[in-house]
Amino acid sequence: MVGEYDAAIVGSGPNGLASAITLARAGLKVLVLEANSTVGGGARSAELTLPGFVHDVCSAVHPLAAGSPFFKTLPLERFGLDWIQPEIPLAHPLDNGSAACLHRDVDLTADSFDNDARAYRTVMKPLTRDWEKLATEFLQPMLHLPRHPFALARFGIPAICPATLLTKLLFKSESARALFAGIAAHSFLPLESPASSAFALVLGMAGHAVGWPIPRGGSQSISNALANYFVELGGKIDTERRIENLSQLPKSRVTLFDTTVWQLVRIAGERLPARYRQRLGNFRHAPGIFKIDYALSSRIPWKAEACRRAGTIHLGGTLDQIASAERDVAGGKVPARPFVLVAQPSLFDETRAPNGKHTLWAYCHVPFDSSPQRVRPVADKIDVSDRIESQIERFAPGFRDCVLARHKMSAQDLEKSNPNLAGGDINGGAANLWQLIARPIFSATPYRTPLRGIYLCSSSTPPGGGVHGMCGYHAARAALRDMFDKRLPPDP
Q1: How far apart are the first and last CA of the chain?
Q2: For 428-465, what is each residue's pLDDT tens digit?
C-alpha cells in the first residue's frame, strides 16, 4: 500500500467508519482498510439462504443507531438510510397466549400492565423524557464529569441493581416482569449481576424515545450510508486488505483499530508493553451466540396476535425461566430452553424477501468457547438449532412447516467470518459492571494505547457494543486532540 495519510482505520464496522468520518470532517486525509470484500463489520446483509431473501449477518434491530447522538449529526438519509418503525417495537409472548409489549408510547405500555401501570410509568416516563441528556452520558466513558448529574442519578440508582431484584421490587405481574427480564438479557449477563438492569432501562427508554427500528434493505444500508458519506468527504476505502501486523500499515500519523483488544494484541504483538498486554489479557469475553437465518414460505403463526405486528420478539417465558437460562450460559452450560431473540423484518420491509415470502433472524446465547484452538471439526460445534426452534414452536405452533431454508452460524462460524467475533462474542467483551467502568482498561481516555499514534475505536472501548458509532467518535476525538492539537466542538 503506497501513499501517505494523516490517519488509517483498520476495520470498517460502524465504529471504524464513525472514526473515519470524524477525522475526515476535521480536514484529515483518511484511509479505511477492510479485510472483507464489503464494508460494515457486524452491520452487513447478504443472501444467506435462497435468492431474493436478504438477511442481516449480525445486527438487525437498531434502537441505539436511531438514537445515536453522533449519527444524528450525519446526513445519512441523503445516502439512502431509511428507518422503518414496526407497529410494535417489541413483543414478549407468554404460555397463556398473551404477549407483553413495549410500545412507543409509555402510557400505552404502562396501561397494558394493569396493577403495574403506575410503577412502570413512574420509572420509565422521566427516563424517556431525559433520553437526549442521558444518551450523551452513558454513550461515553463512565469516567467523566456529568453534564446532567440529576438525570444521570435518576437513571444510575436503579440501573446498578441486578435485574432480578429490580424487577421484583417494581412489578407484581408476570407480564411486566417477563418484558423487563427479556430486555435486561441483552446484557449477556446473569440477571442476578449488578448493572444488568441498566440494559433494560436503556433499551426500554430508547424504545419509547426513538423506537426499535430496522433499516430498509437491511443493516448493510447503515454501513453503506456511512461509507458513502465518508467517501464524499474525500476518504478512501480499501477492501480485502487484511492487516496481520503493524508493518503492513501505510504511513500515517495515527492508526485507529476497529478491532477487539485481542485482535490488537495479535496484530501489535511484542510492540505493546508487557504490562499493557497483561491488562488487556485480563479483559473478559461475553458469552457467544448461535444464530439461524430462515427463509419462510409465509408469516409465522404466532399464538399471540401482538407478535404478528412486532418487529422484535423475545422468547424465553417468565422472568424465572429467562434468569435460569442466562445463569446456565454464564456457568458454561447450554440451556435446555434458551432465551431466543427474534426479528421479523420482512413484515415491514418488502425488500427483504420475494412477494408473499418472509425472513426470520434468530439467535440465542451460548457459553463462550475459551479453548486455545477454536476452529474445530463440524461435528464438535455446538448446534442448538433444535432448541431455538422448539422455543419458536412453543409460541408459534406450526413454525417448522413454514421453513424453506436455514442458514446456521455457530460461534466458530461467526469467528471465521469476522475475527472480531471471537468465540461468538458480538459485544467486544463482557459488559459487566467493572468492564463498563474499565473498558478495556481503567482510564479517562481508554481509546489511547501506549504506542504513540495507535488507538482502539471498537466496541471493546466505551460505551461498548451496539451500532451507534460512539466508540469510534470518541476515539477519533482523542486522536485529534493528542496528535493534531485539534479540539472539536462539544459532544453532539
Answers
A1: 35
A2: 999 999 999 999 999 999 999 999 999 999 999 999 99
